[in-house]
Design goal:
about 120 residues, mainly alpha
């Protein structure tokens, strides 16, 4: 998923592997309790939980949160609408990846067939 352009006022995401809920809150302009709520509403959000249920978000999670924020706060989607939109984006991405894999396999099989015909 690409980072929405509407989030240009947000700070850039540092090149770290994991972010705490406080860091993500600042990076996305959303309070921590809102992030915890969104985890329940959006299956795409699955931060790693470690000692004492502390959440650690990865860069992809931050991008998804920024996209959710944009859909809800800037584009006026409801939570249900934003959830459907994100699931639709995932499905399109999955189909595109599958098509790309099929094309690659076909090319490789055609190369094998050419070798066998020699």
């Amino acid at each position: 998923m690409l980072e929405p352009g509407n989030n240009s006022e947000l700070p850039p995401i540092p090149g770290k592997r994991y972010f705490t809920i406080g860091e993500v809150s600042e990076l996305c302009g959303v309070k921590p309790h809102v992030l915890r709520y969104w985890e329940q509403e959006f299956p795409q959000l699955k931060p790693v939980k470690r000692r004492g249920n502390r959440r650690y978000y990865q860069r992809q999670d931050v991008l998804v949160i920024r996209q959710i924020r944009s859909l809800l706060y800037e584009e006026g989607f409801t939570i249900g609408g934003a959830r459907q939109r994100l699931m639709g984006d995932e499905a399109r991405s999955d189909v595109s990846q599958s098509q790309q894999i099929i094309r690659q396999l076909r090319l490789e099989l055609e190369d094998v067939l050419k070798l066998l015909r020699r």
